[in-house]
UniProtKB/TrEMBL annotation:
Pfam families linked to this entry: Glyco_tran_28_C, Glyco_transf_28
Enzyme class: transferase
Subcellular localization: Cell membrane
Gene label: murG
Name the UniProt record assigns to this protein: UDP-N-acetylglucosamine--N-acetylmuramyl-(pentapeptide) pyrophosphoryl-undecaprenol N-acetylglucosamine transferase
InterPro entries per record: GlcNAc_MurG (IPR006009), Glyco_trans_28_C (IPR007235), GlycoTrans_28_N (IPR004276)
Annotated residues for binding of UDP-N-acetyl-alpha-D-glucosamine: 10-12, 124, 161, 195, 290
Amino acid sequence: MRVVLAGGGTAGHIEPALALADALRHLDRGVGITCMGTERGLETRLVPARGYELELVPAVPLPRAITPSLLTVPGRLAGAINASAAILDRVQADILVGFGGYVATPAYLAAKRRGVPIVVHEANPRPGLANRLGARLTDHVFTGFPDAGLPKGEYIGTPIRRDIVNLDRLSMGDKARSWFGLEGDRPTLLVFGGSQGARSLNQAALAAAPVLRAAGVQVLHVIGPKNTVDHEPPPGDPQYVLLPYVDRMDLAYAAADFALCRSGALTCAELTAVGLPAAYVPLPHGNGEQAINATRIAGGGGGLMVDDADLSPDWIIHNVLPILRDPERVAAMSEAASVLGRKDADIILARKVLEIAR
């Protein structure tokens, strides 16, 4: 059996696809898996690193305004569809599973042209254009959010990596803190802004650093691979560890008692799966899906939510610091977060994909 996975651009599209790939291999070691992406996304690094074959097609972003470049879209889209169809033919695809992003639109249209069964997974509460199109071409639609607004959508959760699903934060805490050069017995705040980082989170956390450290809180701060900071906290105790990127997010989650982060679908799925409470700062632009994600978790007691415009060093000091200094509250929020998590979406989706293909 040959399965083609189409999803690219950000980790929010790629990681669920790779989690599905791992689950498919777990259920059927003989299954062939090809990932389809574009040269513009993180898939060029993440997919080969996980040991899967990657095929590239031209990216065809849609202009956000009516400009002369809009006239070139039909021709470029036709080229991307032809390239996608050639990949499906070459690998003799039995099924296509799409997760969104630039690559998904031509992949869906190519699969429809070739008569290859289509499966759509939408992680966000407000589907993007590609998955709205894909959902019109198939009866097999699955979602990571209870009310994703796609016709025929079945809620199963978002596939996430097994090393995160199987993480025991309590037993791994000391080892994880040691991995990052942190002490084992101090309250620990994890700050990260998704796969690319977030400037507003970086600035607010760094400005709050002196007060956090004076209160005995150590910080693991992932600023993002392309971001820089004006100044780094001076060496001292408690530690303030500043890193551009972390490949072992399972260890970062195990090291932390609380997180300050964006509220993308993948981040929310992972934090609730491992029971890590957080202060969520939804992305201030886009279609508002990050605010919906955060509202659900905050409403369930598993975190806080603050608008990006309202995030400040003082907000962190007055809202996050008291939680970190109250172990019982941390434990209660952790339990509430874990109730909202789904740990089996990868296996559920893999079984459905194999059933549909057969």
